[in-house]
Design brief:
With 199 residues, this protein is α+β, with helices and mostly antiparallel strands. 42% of the residues lie in helices and 19% in strands. It folds into two domains: 10-78, YlxR-like (Hypothetical Cytosolic Protein, Chain: A, 2-Layer Sandwich); 92-195, Ribosomal protein L30/S12 (60s Ribosomal Protein L30, Chain: A), CATH 3.30.1330.30. The protein has helices at 55-63, 66-70, 80-104, 112-120, 136-148, 159-165, 180-195, and strands at residues 10-12, 19-21, 25-30, 36-38, 49-52, 108-110, 125-130, 152-155, 173-177. It has a four-stranded mixed β-sheet, with helices on both faces. A three-stranded antiparallel β-sheet has the order 4-3-5. It is elongated, with a radius of gyration of 19 Å. The protein binds zinc ion (ZN). Zinc ion binds next to strand 5.
Length: 199
């Protein structure tokens, strides 16, 4: 898990030249077909190029032809919009995987009634996810209860996808119990929102 506080290998953003822990940067590699690929999980082989996890640095890297410079004439296409889209999808997939882990470790409460009941009871919930297609009335109720406890609410996935991730039918409200997983998930969601332009 990429805890931002843990010190790991340092890498340089190819756009702004900032040196950061590599877990805070996004890695890109060159495919055999000369295409730049986002390697959010930092698992693909080959030489990697890094940028900050924001659209400014991504766009700047493309505009100033940093990928061409590093991969010396082997790049066939770089498309900032396409890279951004791929990054959004990969972060979303990371959140989905983490939710699956949280389900297995029993760190999830799901369903609007259960979440509302738990929000009104003891502290212990860390964040709440609302599906994109949740009814506005219920969303307002949950937000109100969560805010009263200082808990953040994020809108992500539709209820069908959320249900699939939890191995259930449709789920429109999901809350996470406090812990490392919840922290990591909220960190990834914030990144996602920033890259998707929703922050
Ligand atoms: Zn940067």
């Amino acid at each position: 898990m990429n805890k931002p506080s843990r010190r790991g290998p340092q890498r340089t953003c190819t756009a702004c030249r900032k040196i950061l822990d590599q877990s805070l940067l996004v890695r890109y590699v060159l495919s055999p077909h000369g295409e730049i690929l986002v390697d959010y999980g930092r698992k693909l082989p080959g030489r990697g190029v890094y940028t900050c996890c924001d659209t400014d640095c991504l766009e700047k890297a493309v505009r100033s032809r940093q990928f061409e410079r590093v991969f010396k004439g082997r790049v066939s296409i770089t498309d900032a919009k396409g890279l951004q889209q791929s990054l959004v999808e990969q972060i979303q997939q990371r959140v989905a995987n983490l939710l699956g882990m949280a389900r297995k470790s029993g760190d999830i409460v799901s369903g609007s009634r259960l979440v509302l009941a738990e929000l009104g009871r003891v502290p212990g919930l860390s964040l709440v996810l609302l599906s994109e297609d949740l009814s506005p009335t219920i969303a307002a109720k949950i937000r109100y209860a969560a805010e009263a406890r200082g808990i953040s609410c994020y809108v992500l996935f539709d209820k069908e996808r959320m249900g699939q991730l939890l191995g259930k039918g449709e789920r429109s409200v999901v809350a996470l119990r406090c812990g490392l997983l919840a922290e990591t998930i909220s960190h990834e969601i914030l990144r996602y929102k920033r890259i998707a332009g929703e922050a």
